[in-house]
Amino acid sequence: MMLEIDIRHRQGGFELQADLRLGQGLTALFGPSGSGKTTLINAVAGLIRPDHGRIAFSDQSWSDAATGTFLPTHRRRIGYVFQEPRLFPHLSVRANLTYGRHFTPKPERRENLDRVSALLGIDTLLDRAPNRLSGGEKQRVAIARALMTSPKLLLMDEPLSALDVGLKAQILPYIERIRDEAGVPILYVSHAVEEVTRLATRVVTLNQGRAAMADAVEDTLQHLPRLGQSRAGSFLRARVTGHDPENGLTLATGPAGSLFLKQADLPVGTSIRVFVPASDLVLATGETGSLSTLNSLSGRVSAIFESGTTVLVRVDCGGEVLDAEITRRSRATLDLEPGKPVSVLFKAVSVEAGGVYRQAVKPGA
Ligand SMILES: Nc1ncnc2c1ncn2[C@@H]1O[C@H](COP(=O)(O)OP(=O)(O)OP(=O)(O)O)[C@@H](O)[C@H]1O
């Protein structure tokens, strides 16, 4: 399948421009507030009609300003999940799930209640009324309802933003399963770096209405501050090589070197991204002696950015970029300049749980 978008659309003083080809897996739409994420997703859904250009899905034209083609939303066979679950309060979970199915032509009904409710872990909730579900359960039912229509494409517009951190963590694995097992491409709007890191097969960034495909998920996430996100840090690519349960550690290797991580439940061979906060990195020059930090990567300073009272030192470790936030005084003490060899040190506990992300679908798949 291929979703082709080549559109321009003006609304008031704002103009959206997008020229994208998107394949299977989960495409994250990522950008600051007002950058055009919802406008883009609405154009794909058929909720707005672009002034110029075309949108096509697997060779079916959904919208073409030149020929006047505009396929209405219900004929695009799209599943939509919003911030709020929007369940029918008077219907049971089961009836909520089967409701949308009737709108799908019989030969195209791929999904069934058993499979979808197992995928979302809601099989024991089918006879409940929505007002007897928790917030996280409601959103899982809403996602299941969207899947029950056997959609060709699933649009998710900040589906987790109304949930607290604990509930988000509960739902993320289900979205991963849909990405990996349901065979439905997903367009996923999010502001949250944790969600994008963990879920995205590819990232489309939006900046003042301009959509751009990122070369790699990691590249986008390296430059979060430019995208209006404040959380400074870096991502390392690695593969799990083993576990050391006695010491509560998981071992991984990537282009930057060997990594010690707090033990994570990930099979050997799993590709992961490890988020390392800039403020947790320690830089050292010369011999470091004995330290309690398990991770020590060798690199070379590639750039230095002054920012207020602190300094962001960018270090190239085997082609991977690590940003370390240190004080001006530390920079002066270490006499750091671009080109200087340094060791980058961080503790295994700096990258526990939320900092390690499984990525089952290869970028570009
Ligand atoms: N109907 C409209 N008429 C005029 N301007 C609009 C209309 N709808 C949205 N806009 C403007 O278009 C721009 C893009 O809005 P959009 O909702 O797509 O952004 P967004 O990236 O989804 O933002 P957020 O993350 O805050 O939801 C904004 O400047 C917004 O004010």
Automatic annotation (TrEMBL):
The ABC transporter domain extends over: 2-233
Q: Which key words are in the record?
A: ATP-binding, Cell inner membrane, Cell membrane, Membrane, Molybdenum, Nucleotide-binding, Translocase, Transport
Has keyword Acetylation? no
Keyword Membrane on entry: yes
Q: What GO terms are given for molecular function?
A: ABC-type transporter activity; ATP binding; ATP hydrolysis activity; molybdate ion transmembrane transporter activity
One GO cellular component term, please give it: membrane
Q: Which residues form the Mop domain?
A: 290-355
| PANTHER family (alphabetical) | ABC TRANSPORTER I FAMILY MEMBER 10
Q: Hey, which family's this protein in?
A: Belongs to the ABC transporter superfamily.
Instruction: Tell me what this protein is called.
Output: Molybdenum ABC transporter ATP-binding protein
Origin organism is Allorhizobium taibaishanense
